[in-house]
# Entry
Amino acid sequence: MLSKVENFHMVASALVLTVALLSRLANGLVDTSSSSSGSDAVYSVGRFPFLMPKVIPHRPELYLCTPVKVDYSKSYYIVGFEPNATMATAHHMLLYGCGDPGSESAVWNCGEMVKNDDVKEETGSPCATGSPSQIIYAWARDAPKLELPDGVGFKVGKDSPIKYIVLQVHYAHIDRFKDGTTTDDSGIFLHYTLKPMHKQAGVLLLGTGGSIPPMKTEHMETVCDIRENKTIYPFAYRTHTHSLGKVVSGYRIRVDDDGQDHWTLLGKRDPLTPQMFYPVENREPIRYKDRMAARCTMESHKETITNVGATNNDEMCNFYLMYYVENSEPLQMKYCFSNGPPYFYWRNKEAELNNIPDYEASHL
# Structure
């Protein structure tokens, strides 16, 4: 096990392999609890340092993952996220909730890079194949910390499909690590409580595949239906693209009895501003049979095609919607993706959309 970790030029002891459980903090090994006064009562909040274990990224565009195992015997509710990173080091960070991690190692390559046969290293997805997998938090571009609304929390551990939390960090540039001694502990301090939260949080990620032609403005669009008989309450959104993104917008669509679509804006933003979670524009409930849609307006001045991909030279189109449900479980649907351009657009006949806010969706 250690030999695999050493191939990542880790600077850490073997103790890293026994990452602390969230429950150990709750039992008082680290005195980080504080009081939080919500609408119901005052409750204790712990602060768990979920950080990269002093890694030395050894090549650009490297994605590294590290896991923490949650105590299965208790239910924990994550109520806040406090980043410990700067965009000078980390291009972005994601937190995945997993049934099982994608590797048994302390750290592994969890990106989509082409494998180099000359370098033996542990590789895998953030979550194990076939395991429950969902994104619970995302950070980029020096976004500040996020505290969830009163009474809202991400449930992990007992009676939850989330048994492990996996931190993924994308290192786009590694200039500061070339001396071979500088290490990184980018990550997120998780704020959590044992107090049951009756409003369980979830994240729906809307995005696309596809490509952007050279020297052209392109729309990357997706739409999907809410097919579960649940009511969700949106409260925050986040946008993400790489350098070609100009505007990212997300909508709830409700069809009336005459078959007319009514588009309600959830959020719209320049994705090159701090990529934090912002309050939604409209907090009206989203119900069964509503539709969700997102558009990324991309502007390319490149002379070559830009494809959706994992590296900084590729592109991404993401709209994250954070929501809660009352006295229920979050949606089983975690992702809403289309093939993107040139294959899918809102205007396609099969999308069955009308009253498309074409101008508004692409202008701030």
Remarks:
- Helices lie at 2-6, 22-26.
- The first helix runs from residue 2 to 6.
- Residues 1-33, 113-118 have pLDDT under 50 and may be disordered.
